[in-house]
Design brief:
1175 residues; mainly alpha; DUF4042; repeat; HEAT; ARM-type_fold
Length: 1175
C-alpha cells in the first residue's frame, strides 16, 4: 500500500537517525557521500551495502543533464540499483538525511518531464528512500521536489500519476504547514488532490493515492504547526466524503480497505490538530456515526446498519443487528472472486508491492490470536449465542456460520495454502486494520472534544443492559469481547479508558440503592445499569483475553472505571468479584500485566476510601499459592504446567486456592506489596522482565514502584488496618531512602508522608477527648520517627539534583505528630530538620520552595506545642542563631509566590509567638522582628489570594498571643490594628473577615490595644462590620454569615470587658445613633445560642476555619462582669464622664434584659405542650 511503514501503526515514532535539518543544494563544496564509520563487530554485508550505495550515489552526482541516450541508460541502471536495495535491513542507518535530500534534488534535475519511464522510477526512489530511511525532507528540498511532482502531474500521462502521487505523499509527510506555496495548486478549487481525491474519481488508484497525500498533509510532527485553514477544512471534507461513499462495484475489497484506512488516518491527523470546533462543515454526530460503522467493519457475525448521524439520544432501532443477506456480505463477495481475478490485477510499481509486503508483516498475527472460551451449551461468556441466526457471514460450505470466527477453529495449514483461502485471510487482516484505524480516530475524537459534549453519546458506545432475549447492543465492549484481532480489542479498550478518564462528575449521578420505580426509569438508574454492565463485560474480557498486551489494556480500563464510579451510591457487590479475579494477575508471567494489576489494586483501595466492601476484602486472609506462585492462577495460564516451580511441602495444588493465611495476621495486601519491594524476584517470568529491574535479584523497577504506590493508597484509605505494621513500613521506607534510584526514594518518602498523616488524623479525630485505644501509642510513634528520621532523610532533603524528592521530603517532615516531637531524642534533631528546610526554602524550584514553606509552618507549629508542653527548658536549648535564621527566611519567603507565601506567613506567626524576653532583649532580633511584622501586615492588606490573607490574619492573631511582644507600644502596632480593621469591614471573603475579627479579640489587656484613638478605631470597625454583616457581593458567602456575626459579637464583648474610662466617648457615639438597635439585636441573638445554631449549618471546613469564637455562655459571663464593673465606676464617676458611662451601661442592661425576655419566651414555648398533658 502507498505510504510510510509507520502510517498504519497505532503510533508514529521515528528513529533517532531521522533528521529534519536543512540540506544544502548540490554544489562543488558539497561533501561526497561517505558512510559513517562502522563498529568492528558489524557484518560484512552491511559494509558491502554501504559501499554499493556509495558508488551509486557518487555516480549519480557525477552525471549532468543532457539528451543523450547514454544518460538515460545510466539513470535507468542507477535507479534500478538504488530501488533494489532494502533500506529497512538496518545496513543503511548511517546515511545522512541531507545526503538523501541532495541526491533526490540532483536526480530531479537529470530527469526531464518528457521521460515518463524515468519519472516512474524516480518517484519510486523518492518514496522508497524517504519511507524506509524515515527522512522528513528540509524546506528547500521540499519546495524543489514538490514543484517537480506537481509539474509532472500537470504534464505527464495519467498512467504515471499514481506513482507520482506516491512520491508526493512521502514528501508532504509531516510537512503540511511548510507546503504553503504549493497548497493553492494542490488544494485549491481545481487542485490536483481535490480532483483526484473526490469520491467521483473513477480511477481507484488515483483516488487512493490522493487520499493518502491528503492524510499526510494533515499530519504534523512535534514542534511543527498544523495545516492552516481553509486547506485543513478542504482535506477534512474530502476525507469525510470518502468515508461516506459506498464501495464501487468493480473495486476489490482489499483495495477499498486501504482507501478507508487512509481516510481514517487522515481524519485522525485532522483531529489531532486542535480542539473540535462545532461549525457547519464539522458535525460531530455525522463523524461518530461513521466511526461506529467502521469500528465493526468486516467483523464476523455482525452486519451494521448505521444512520447517517448519531444524536445524543440514539433511537433503539439503530442498535439492532438485522439478518443480513448473504449476497450483501463483503466476505461472500470476496469469496466469489477467483484467484485469477485477484492476481491479474497486479500492482503497477514495485514500490507499492514492497510497501504492501512491509505492512503485511506488521499485523500478520492480528487475526490468529483467539481469546474466547465457550461452554458446552454453545453460549460464550459474553452471553452471545454462537449459533445466532443473525450472522451475516456465509461459510464456504454453505452452513450457517457460528459467531465464533471459523478461521480460528482448529484447521490444518493446508486450508490456507490455496490462493482463495490466502486472499480471505488477507482480506480479514485488512478489515481488522480498518477497524483499528476507526478506533484510533475515535480516540482522537475523545481527546479533542469536550467530555460534557461527548457524554451525550454515551449510550451509543457503552451498554446499559446485557441484551438478554434479543440482539445485544453494538458497543465498544462488543469489540473487546468479540473481535478476533488483539490489536483491535486493545484499541476499543483504549477508547473506553479515555471515555472513563475524568468521568467522575458524569457518573456521580448513577444510583440504584433506592427502590425501583415502576412508571419510568430515571437517568440515575440507567447510568447505574450501565456501570454494572461495564463491570460485567470487562470481567468477561479479563477472563477470556489471551494476549498480554490486550490484557494490560483490560486492567487499565478497569482501573479507570473503578476510579470514577460512585460506589457509595450503588448496591454493594460490584467490587468483590473484580477483587477476587485480579489477585492472581499480580504474579502473572508478563511484567506489564503485573504492573497494571497493581495499578488496579491501587484504584480499588483509593476510590472513596474507606469503602465497607473493600475493608471486608482487605481483612480476608491471603492465599499462599496465589501470592507466591507466579503465572499459574490466571485462567489463561492453567495449561502452562511446565512453568510450575517445585511445590513446597504442604502447599495446596489447586490453581486458584491454596493454604489460607492466618486471619489475625497483617493485611495480605500489605504483605504482598512489601514482598514485591524487598524480596528477590521469583521465576519463571517472561523475557520482557529482563533489564527492567533496579537490581539483578529484585523485582523489575516498575513493579516495585507500583507496589509502593499501592501501599501509600492503602495507608491513606485504610490506616486502621495497617497501623499494626507501622514499624515494618517505617523500615521499608528507610530501606527505600537508602537506595540509589531516586524514584524509589521518592515513593519511599510519599509512603512516609501518608503514614505520618494517618497518625495525625487519628489524634485529630480524638482532639476533644483522650486518645482512644485505637490510636497508635505516642511511644510507638516516637520509635517510628526516631528510626526513620536519620541520615537518609537529611540526604533526601539536601538532594539538589532531584527537586521533586526534596519536595516530598519536606512533606514528610510536615507530617510528624506534634505530641511525639517533644519526645524525639533531643532538640538537635529539630535543628537538623530546620536547617534542611531552610536550605530547601532557597531552592530554584517553586514546588520545592512551596513544600519547604509548608514543612516550616508545620515545624513551627511543633515549636509552639513543645513550648506549651515542655516549657522554658525547650526554649532555652533552642539555638538563637537558628531561630533568627528561621525568622529571616520566613520573612523572605512571605514575598514569594502565593503558594510559598501562604505557609511562610503561618510560620512567621508561630515564630513571633515563640520569641521570649531573652530574644526580644537582644538587638540582633529587633530589626528581623519589625520586618516580620511588616511582612504580615503587608500580606493582610495586599492583593494575594484569600487563602494567603486568611493565613496572614491567623498569623497576626497568633503573634498577638505572645505576652512578651511590645504590642500597643511598638511602631508597627498601629499598622497591624489598622490592617485588621480594614479587612474586617471591607474584605469580600467572609472567612478572612472571621479570622481578622478573631485576631482583634486576642489581646488580653487594655494596654495592648494602644491609645484611646487606636481602641476606638478597632471598636468602630467591629461595630460597622457587625451592622453590615448581611451585605455580601457573592451569595456563596451567606453560609459564613452566622460564624462571622458570632465572632464579631465575641470581639465586641471582649473590648467592652477591657475598656477604660478614656474609651467611653467613642463607645457612646456608636451606641447613641441608629446603629444601637442593630447591634443590640445581634448581641441578643448571639447570647441566646441562636447564633451557634446557625454556625452548625456551616460545612466542616468552614466551621474549622471559623471556629475562633467563644461559646455564648462565656460571652454572657463576660457581659455580666463588664456590667458589674461599669456600674461600680458609674457610682464613682465625675460629672464629665458620667454621661458616656451611663450610655454604655444602659446599652448593656438593655441587651441583658432583652436576652432574659427571649430566654423566658423560648422556655414557655418549649413547656407549652407539657402543660396540656393529662394530669
Amino acid at each position: 500500500m502507498a505510504g510510510k511503514v509507520t502510517f498504519f501503526e497505532s503510533s508514529l515514532s521515528f528513529p533517532s537517525s531521522r533528521n529534519t535539518e536543512g540540506a544544502e543544494s548540490a554544489s562543488a563544496d558539497t561533501p561526497r557521500f561517505v558512510p559513517l564509520p562502522k563498529a568492528q563487530h558489524e557484518l560484512d554485508g552491511s559494509a558491502q551495502a554501504q559501499d554499493q550505495i556509495s558508488r551509486c550515489c557518487n555516480k549519480l552526482r557525477s552525471l549532468r543533464a543532457s539528451d543523450s541516450a547514454t544518460l538515460k541508460t545510466e539513470l535507468n541502471s542507477l535507479f534500478d540499483q538504488l530501488i533494489s536495495e532494502n533500506y529497512n535491513s538496518g545496513n543503511h542507518d548511517n546515511i545522512h538525511p541531507e545526503v538523501v535530500c541532495e541526491m533526490l534534488m540532483h536526480a530531479s534535475r537529470l530527469v526531464p518531464l518528457s521521460q515518463e519511464h524515468l519519472i516512474i522510477k524516480l518517484s519510486q526512489l523518492i518514496h522508497q528512500l524517504l519511507n524506509q530511511l524515515q527522512v522528513i525532507v528540509d524546506e528547500h528540498a521540499l519546495d524543489v521536489l514538490v514543484s517537480y511532482c506537481t509539474r509532472a502531474l500537470r504534464t505527464c500521462s495519467s498512467w504515471t500519476h499514481p506513482e507520482v502521487l506516491l512520491a508526493l505523499s512521502s514528501l508532504v509527510y509531516g510537512n503540511g504547514s511548510r507546503c504553503h506555496r504549493h497548497l493553492p495548486e494542490l488544494l485549491g478549487l481545481s487542485g490536483i488532490l481535490v480532483n483526484y481525491g473526490d469520491p467521483s474519481q473513477p480511477d481507484i488508484e488515483l483516488r487512493r493515492s490522493a487520499v493518502h497525500c491528503l492524510a499526510n498533509l494533515c499530519l504534523s510532527v512535534p514542534g511543527q504547526p498544523y495545516l492552516e485553514e481553509p486547506y485543513k477544512g478542504v482535506c477534512y471534507g474530502i476525507l469525510l466524503r470518502t468515508l461516506q461513499s459506498p464501495k464501487p462495484p468493480d473495486v476489490e475489497d482489499i483495495v477499498f480497505c486501504t482507501l478507508l484506512q487512509s481516510a481514517l488516518k487522515g481524519t485522525q491527523y485532522f483531529l489531532n490538530g486542535g480542539k473540535w470546533k462545532a461549525v457547519s462543515t464539522q458535525d460531530l454526530g455525522t463523524l461518530l456515526a461513521l466511526l461506529k460503522r467502521f469500528m465493526f467493519y468486516g467483523l464476523p457475525g455482525i452486519s451494521v446498519e448505521m444512520p447517517q448521524v448519531l444524536y445524543p439520544a440514539p433511537l433503539p432501532q439503530y442498535e439492532t443487528i438485522p439478518a443480513a443477506k448473504p449476497e450483501l456480505s463483503q466476505d461472500s463477495a470476496a469469496q466469489k472472486k477467483t484467484a485469477g481475478s485477484q492476481q491479474n490485477k497486479k500492482r503497477k510499481s514495485r514500490g507499492k508491492g514492497k510497501k504492501a509486503g512491509a505492512e503485511g508483516k506488521n499485523d500478520d498475527d492480528d487475526h490468529i490470536s483467539g481469546h474466547l472460551k465457550t461452554g458446552g451449551s454453545g453460549v460464550d461468556q459474553s452471553g452471545w449465542s454462537l449459533g445466532s441466526q443473525s450472522a451475516s457471514v456465509t461459510s464456504p460450505s454453505g452452513v450457517t456460520p457460528q459467531l465464533y470466527p471459523s478461521w480460528k477453529k482448529g484447521s490444518s495449514d493446508s486450508e490456507f495454502s490455496d490462493p482463495e483461502g490466502g486472499m480471505q485471510t488477507k482480506l480479514r487482516l485488512y478489515q481488522a486494520r480498518v477497524r483499528q484505524s476507526a478506533l484510533q480516530c475515535f480516540l482522537a475524537v475523545v481527546k479533542c472534544v469536550e467530555k460534557r459534549i461527548l457524554y451525550g453519546y454515551w449510550s451509543s458506545f457503552v451498554p446499559d443492559a446485557p441484551g438478554i432475549g434479543g440482539p445485544p447492543p453494538l458497543t465498544l465492549l462488543t469489540i473487546a469481547l468479540k473481535d478476533p484481532s488483539p490489536k483491535v480489542r486493545a484499541g476499543s479498550l483504549q477508547v473506553l479508558s479515555a471515555l472513563l478518564e475524568g468521568s467522575r462528575q458524569f457518573l456521580s449521578t448513577a444510583e440504584d440503592t433506592s427502590a425501583p420505580r415502576q412508571a419510568f426509569t430515571p437517568f440515575s438508574a440507567t447510568l447505574a445499569a450501565s456501570v454494572r454492565e461495564l463491570h460485567r463485560c470487562l470481567l468477561l474480557a479479563l477472563v477470556a483475553e489471551s494476549s498480554c498486551q490486550t490484557l494490560t489494556q483490560v486492567l487499565k480500563c478497569l482501573a479507570h472505571l473503578v476510579s470514577n464510579v460512585p460506589y457509595n451510591r450503588l448496591r454493594p457487590g460490584l467490587l468483590s468479584p473484580l477483587w477476587k479475579q485480579i489477585r492472581p494477575y499480580v504474579r502473572h508471567r508478563d511484567v506489564n500485566v503485573r504492573v497494571s494489576s497493581l495499578t488496579l489494586f491501587g484504584a480499588l483501595v483509593s476510590t472513596q476510601a474507606p469503602l465497607p466492601e473493600i475493608q471486608l476484602l482487605l481483612q480476608q486472609p491471603g492465599s499462599t499459592s496465589a501470592l507466591s506462585t507466579p503465572g499459574i492462577s490466571t485462567p489463561q495460564e492453567l495449561s502452562h504446567n511446565w512453568r510450575l516451580p517445585t511445590r513446597r511441602d504442604g502447599e495446596a495444588s489447586s490453581p486458584g486456592g491454596g493454604v489460607e493465611g492466618d486471619p489475625e495476621g497483617p493485611c495480605w495486601m500489605l504483605q504482598l506489596c512489601v514482598s514485591l519491594v524487598t524480596q528477590p524476584r521469583e521465576e519463571p517470568y517472561s523475557d520482557s522482565d529482563a533489564g527492567g529491574s533496579s537490581g539483578a535479584s529484585l523485582e523489575p523497577l516498575p513493579i516495585r514502584l507500583e507496589a509502593l504506590q499501592v501501599l501509600a493508597h492503602l495507608v491513606k484509605g485504610y490506616f486502621s488496618l495497617v497501623q499494626t505494621s507501622l514499624l515494618e513500613l517505617g523500615q521499608l521506607s528507610t530501606r527505600c531512602l537508602k537506595e540509589q534510584e531516586p524514584s524509589v526514594q521518592l515513593h519511599g518518602t510519599k509512603l512516609l508522608e501518608e503514614l505520618g498523616t494517618g497518625i495525625i488524623q487519628q489524634y485529630r479525630a480524638d482532639a476533644n477527648t483522650t486518645p482512644s485505644a485505637k490510636c497508635v501509642p505516642v511511644c510507638q510513634v516516637v520509635e517510628f520517627w526516631s528510626e526513620v528520621l536519620a541520615a537518609p532523610m537529611i540526604s533526601a532533603l539536601q538532594n539538589e539534583q532531584h527537586p521533586t524528592l526534596q519536595t516530598s521530603a519536606c512533606d514528610t517532615l510536615s507530617s510528624i505528630l506534634p505530641q511525639a516531637f517533644s519526645q524525639l531524642p533531643d532538640v538537635m534533631f529539630v535543628a537538623d530538620t530546620a536547617n534542611a528546610i531552610l536550605t530547601a526554602l532557597d531552592d530554584r524550584s517553586p514546588n520545592v520552595r512551596a513544600k519547604a514553606a509548608w514543612s516550616l509552618g508545620n515545624l513551627t507549629d511543633t515549636l509552639i506545642v513543645n513550648m506549651q508542653s515542655v516549657g522554658l527548658e525547650f526554649q532555652e536549648e533552642f539555638s538563637d542563631m537558628l531561630l533568627l535564621n528561621m525568622l529571616r527566611s520566613a520573612t523572605k519567603a512571605s514575598g514569594d509566590k502565593d503558594r510559598v507565601k501562604s505557609n511562610a506567613v503561618r510560620a512567621l506567626g508561630n515564630l513571633v509567638h515563640f520569641l521570649q524576653p531573652v530574644h526580644l532583649g537582644k538587638p540582633v532580633f529587633e530589626q528581623p522582628l519589625q520586618e516580620a511584622m511588616r511582612a504580615l501586615i503587608d500580606t493582610v492588606r495586599g492583593e494575594a489570594t484569600m487563602k494567603v490573607r486568611w493565613n496572614a490574619c491567623y498569623a497576626l492573631g497568633n503573634a498577638f498571643r505572645n505576652h512578651n511582644l511590645p504590642l500597643g507600644s511598638a511602631d508597627w502596632s498601629k499598622e497591624a490594628y489598622s490592617a485588621l480593621s480594614y479587612v474586617v469591614t471591607s474584605c469580600k471573603n467572609f472567612k478572612v473577615r472571621i479570622k481578622s475579627a478573631a485576631a482583634l479579640s486576642v489581646p488580653s489587656t487594655r494596654d495592648r490595644y494602644g491609645d484611646a484613638q487606636q481602641f476606638a478605631q478597632v471598636w468602630q470597625a467591629l461595630a460597622q462590620a457587625l451592622e453590615h454583616s448581611e451585605e455580601m457581593e457573592d451569595f456563596l458567602e451567606y453560609r459564613y454569615c452566622a460564624s462571622l456575626r458570632s465572632q464579631l459579637c465575641h470581639a465586641l464583648l471582649h473590648l467592652l470587658s477591657v475598656c477604660q474610662p478614656n474609651d467611653l466617648p467613642a463607645l457612646r457615639s456608636s451606641l447613641s445613633d441608629q446603629s444601637r438597635p442593630v447591634l443590640q439585636g445581634f448581641l441578643v441573638h448571639y447570647l441566646s445560642n441562636k447564633g451557634v445554631t446557625l454556625v452548625a449549618g456551616v460545612d466542616g471546613a468552614a466551621g474549622d476555619e471559623a471556629g475562633d469564637h467563644a461559646v455564648p455562655e462565656d460571652g454572657l459571663r463576660a457581659l455580666n462582669e463588664t456590667l458589674t464593673r461599669l456600674k461600680g465606676q458609674l457610682e464613682e464617676a465625675v460629672l464629665d464622664s458620667s454621661e458616656d458611662l451611663e450610655t454604655v451601661v444602659n446599652f448593656l442592661e438593655d441587651v441583658l434584659r432583652n436576652f432574659e425576655e427571649v430566654k423566658e419566651s423560648d422556655s414557655k414555648v418549649f413547656s407549652l405542650p407539657l402543660s396540656k398533658l393529662p394530669q
